[in-house]
């Protein structure tokens, strides 16, 4: 952007001869006819840009696929590089500015690029980065097989358009825009030195650009506030600072065209200190001194003559002094006040367009002066303009300085005038799409500042030209601006057109979701307008979206929502869990929560023995973790009973998640059966066995109490005691106990009696609630009955096995298992 010194333009004439005429529309092959319908190849689609009813898109027919493009020759690349330079201005050629104090930086950059390294040239605005890139480009010719390719990154935030521009600069692929896969495959084969001026992207976006082109060496010119590349990009950093005092004076003398006086030399030294030696400031300071010399010369020669009637600038009386230091640091106001009226009108247009200056061929129509095209050369010589790609825009800081003095007061009127002019120009049959693409920034700026009516008209005529020129980033921006302006203006037909074009663009870029949304909106709007042709075009494009979605679904089938084979037949889903290595956190015991039921496990899982929990503790014991976790699920009856398997995603989800699910018929409860040998019963079977054991204990206790109450002696004051002489062997085993039962309560009365053998229960004391046994088995109080004949209970087995009592969530506790001989029960009499 900052071509402030050292620029040697190949298109500029070294002598004062006439400049070559710019190529006209009639000289180009694309202007052979007035038809604006253009056929393109976009990826796997054939696109026909139709500005009337909307673009039409269809798949490429077999045999019509484009062949692999060939690379351009050196002469063709040179012609394209010359066309990418700023346009030739009318009038005498501007003198070339010397490249001062940049030899070391230029040699270093050429050396790094010759080794295949990428370099980031960082410097403030006005430091001469563009002039240095021109010098490097001349020295790098022949270093790479594909030559030197130069772009402007101004306004580019994504690497996609830069990759397409690089592809079009190297390959002969006119009217073709490859798909993403084809683009990446072709640019990987490009070996060139790429000079990217005015870079505005960094980080991951810049990494993507460089990864896509591994055989290219980049020279990236950016300002210090631009986002830096990532650490893994391996980009060298070269900082470009200001000039020294001697170089500043030399540049100032070259701009003025004469030696400096002592007063001017001292003023230049102060200016260098204030501006940090930026070359742009001394180009503008040279313009101030030239204007001062011109004013003083006219005042000396025409002292006694009257000012001319047709002179554009008023004649100042007296000697014009040197500008102040503040005027030299911010010279835009003073410079603009001494230029022609046409140049000041061009500055107002540039302020209204956000700093973008239209092509000099448009200035006579925009300003109303037939000689207004010479204003660009006048402003460029003053340092108020700087080249950016193929166009010019206001230099750094100039727009702000001009707006502060009132140049932006008529911005809305100037933008509306520019929008109406561009709407006529872009819709003219003699204007080829390439010329419209070169003026894209000024067109978009006029579109942003115009009223809704002018914006709709401009977007309607410029959108097909941007599409045909393959400048699709500008095409998308103008379509979105046009859709918003049409919505505000109430133009339903134009709004439907813009949405249709956005859908076609998204389809070409393989963004199917966006394409569906835009096309459905367009079809709905055109259906309300009864636009049959537009509706048919939209439905054809929408059918391609559906085909793309179907192809994508077939390439990656959805997840089948099926249970494993064994569990699917039983209507259960089994979830396999990874065994936990750490013990779960302790939780307080809950007495009121019901015990949940557990499904039977498929196979045995090892458990871990834990230490017993002391009675009365409020900390829940650690639950043994199983290698498998079984989840019980209620089967749902599908709404649609199909005999075949579903084939699409909608059928799968219809079977798995029906709109009106019906629960399966309840199944009969399974009877409690004895577990198979070598297999541990499940949680439900343990519950049933525990209940059966509890009932057996109650029945046995009832029989014993009846036998005691039928004795001939009177009922004792104390309950019957059990006397036995067992040989007891205590062994701590791990049993399963409920985690919701309360802790055992100690007896209130005298020391407890001796523990009976397993399988028997002692009779309770009348009038006192029986205490809980360590096994937590229920011991109901027998009812009082008259004495009956004593009945001797059946002896127990010598080695009974304990009956486990288990609930839904087992928590291990420790009990005492006793083994001994048979005992006899006899009533206890009062002593």
Q: Report Rg.
A: 47 Å
Envelope shape? globular
Assign the structural class, choosing from mainly alpha, mainly beta, alpha/beta, alpha+beta, or little secondary structure. Answer: alpha/beta
Poorly predicted parts: 1-35, 561-640, 712-831
Give the DSSP E fraction (strand runs of 2 or more residues).
5-15%
Mean pLDDT across the residues is 73
Portion in helices = 25-40%
- Count helical runs: 26
Largest sheet: 5 strands, parallel
Strand ordering within the main sheet: 5-7-8-4-9
Please give the number of β-strands.
Answer: 18
Distance between the termini: 120 Å
3D architecture notes:
By secondary structure, the protein is an alpha/beta fold. 38% of the residues lie in helices and 9% in strands. Strands 5-7-8-4-9 form a 5-stranded parallel beta sheet, with helices on both faces. Strands 3-2-1-6 form a 4-stranded mixed beta sheet. A hairpin with a 6-residue loop joins β2 and β3. The protein is globular, with a radius of gyration of 47 Å. It starts with 37 loop residues before the first strand and ends in a 14-residue tail after the last strand.
